[in-house]
Amino acid sequence: MTAPRSAAPSAPVNAPGRQPAAARESAPLIAARGVCVRIEGRTVLRDVDLEIRPAEIVTILGPNGSGKTTLLRALIGALTPDAGEIRRSPDLCVGHVPQRLSLDRTMPLTVDRFLALSGARRAARQQALERVGIGGRAGAMMAALSGGQFQRALLAHALLRRPNLFVLDEPTQGLDQPGVAAFYRLIEDLRRETGAAVLMVSHDLHVVMSASDRVICLNGHVCCSGAPHVVARAPEYRALFGLGTQGALALYRHEHDHSHAHDGPAPAREEAPRE
Ligand SMILES: Nc1ncnc2c1ncn2[C@@H]1O[C@H](COP(=O)(O)OP(=O)(O)OP(=O)(O)O)[C@@H](O)[C@H]1O
Fold it and tell me: How many angstroms separate the alpha carbon of residue 166 from the centre of ligand 1?
């Protein structure tokens, strides 16, 4: 899908980060340039540039209402930008785990029936469940799953598409810290096994910073982006997320009672903070 562009990108927004060499050399799965989205007359995204390359893990961070979900929806084609251009690789196959999936708790939908909606055969469904660590829950009702199991069921559904890009919108929302860490380990394992790229939105700064190849800090526009340790030192990131700011941590959905890792190695000269 393409749409008219509104403005040329002003800076090389996506610094290389630490994505695998193969990713740096491959054509992007998705490339967005100058993307603007207006909703109900209000500009939600402006001049967003980004690229997702094969096998890299890219995380979008930003305060509530900063346009993260809107950006994911634009990137996967669920909404059309008002301006800008989004190019997708012809072989792009997205496994999407949405932020919310409302299920009527009275609906008699088992995990296996839910996965069957993908059209996959029973053996493949069971294999996917086992791969995400809930092989014993095929006969359980979706509504009876714990938060972590539910997210894994959604991930199994995405996995059945054999995607080359997982798109995950706050996949660890509502999980406790061990659950969050385990989910990210699973994501990293899946990336390694399948070679799929991962694009996700997350509020779990601490884990994101260790589990991502690149981080994009969004607040209606791309404030800064690059390797996690570089972004962690960018003034734009610090202004949004911490280091003594009173209001920043209140922007999260969940409470933090720990400090964040801002003291990584000195930044390489690869960062391109904006504005
Ligand atoms: N369908 C819609 N109708 C009206 N406003 C919308 C709609 N979708 C998004 N918005 C508005 O656009 C802005 C960005 O929303 P979006 O959901 O993309 O933010 P977000 O960064 O994902 O937020 P959160 O972290 O709370 O999930 C918000 O102000 C939101 O209210």
Answer: 21
Q: How many angstroms separate the CA atoms of 211 and 197, rounded?
A: 13
Contacts by residues 169-172 (CB-CB < 8 Å, ≥ 24 positions apart)? 169/68, 169/69, 169/72, 169/97, 169/98, 169/99, 169/200, 169/201, 170/99, 170/200, 170/201, 170/202, 170/203, 171/97, 171/200, 171/202, 172/202, 172/204, 172/207
pLDDT in tens, 135-149: 999 999 998 998 889
Q: Whose CA is nearest to atom 30 of ligand 1?
A: 65
The model's pTM: 0.79
Residue 70 Cα to ligand 1 middle (Å): 6
For CA atoms 209, 214, 220, 223, the dihedral sign is: positive
If you ran DSSP here, which 8-state letter would residue 178 be given?
A: H
CATH topology of domain 1-93+165-184+197-270: Rossmann fold (3.40.50)
Where do the CATH 3.40.50.300 domains begin and end in the chain? 1-93+165-184+197-270
Specify whether the CB–CB gap between 24 and 158 falls below 8 A: no
Q: What ipTM was assigned to the predicted interfaces of this complex?
A: 0.96
Out of 48, 61, 69, 167, mutate this one to test ligand 1's pocket (max ligand atoms within 8 Å of CB): namely 69
Query: Which tens digits make up the pLDDT trace of 156-167?
Result: 999 999 999 999
